[in-house]
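Below is how a single chain appears once it has passed through the pipeline. First comes the sequence as given, then the structure the pipeline wrote out for it. We keep one example in the README because the format questions we get most often are answered faster by looking than by reading.
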Amino acid sequence: MLSQIRARPKIFLATALLTAVAVIAHAFTATPVYRGSVKMMSRENDAGGGGALQNILGQFGGLAAMAGISFGSVNQQESIAWLKSRALFTVFANEQNLIPILFRDKWDAASGRWRVDLKTPPTMDDAWAMFDGAFAGSTMTPRPG
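Resulting structure:
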């Protein structure tokens, strides 16, 4: 095969160039693929002394406390996961009509509509991306008590 490439380098280069151009053209013209994300936390049965996760945390809780690390209880972690969830944000944003507030520079308050110079108005996905990005670096640690 190497001998055939050496015998016809122009054909090999032309094929490689056409392939590269086709891949680049496809990358710019293809329909975008959307990705969903789910944040889940297992819920163990509270009866019988707690679940496996609580047992593991209980075993290492003393060592972690000496190191200054607090895991919080499973219920606290579940509550934090729910507060950071997209489902809660969507319900809250719809109830409070937050999209015009989050994108106030694109909202015409006088007419109660999106500005006419916008190609597309912001969506709930845009609002979630803004919300999730704003809190991506923050950590929520439960307070004792």
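The first helix runs from residue 2 to 7.

See the next section for the split statistics.
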